[in-house]
Q: What sequence folds into this?
């Protein structure tokens, strides 16, 4: 490429051949075209699995620090952090939200 620029060559065919040689090699797929056969799928995943309990504890700590108690409870129960996931109706009942539109109110808080 530097050679093409320096010499001031305006031969479009030469420039096209240069770029094609670079980019076609990148875009070429191995025979079979199956994604499972591509090199990206053959790399072994050596990462450690996430420790969900530690992530939940960390997330709940952040939530307690930055949210109001009612917001914290709604999110904790909605996403099942240290408990089973609950529906808006179950959360409303547990938090004693008694308006007719309790489920809507829980969604607003969430």
A:
């Amino acid at each position: 490429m530097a050679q093409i620029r320096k010499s001031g060559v305006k031969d479009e065919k030469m420039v096209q051949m240069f770029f094609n040689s670079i980019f076609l090699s990148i875009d070429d797929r191995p025979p079979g075209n199956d994604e499972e056969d591509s090199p990206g799928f053959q790399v072994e995943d050596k990462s450690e699995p996430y420790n969900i309990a530690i992530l939940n504890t960390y997330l709940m700590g952040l939530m307690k620090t930055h949210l109001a108690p009612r917001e914290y409870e709604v999110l904790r129960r909605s996403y099942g952090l240290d408990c089973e996931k609950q529906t808006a109706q179950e959360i409303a009942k547990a938090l004693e939200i008694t308006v007719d539109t309790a489920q809507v109110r829980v969604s607003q808080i969430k």
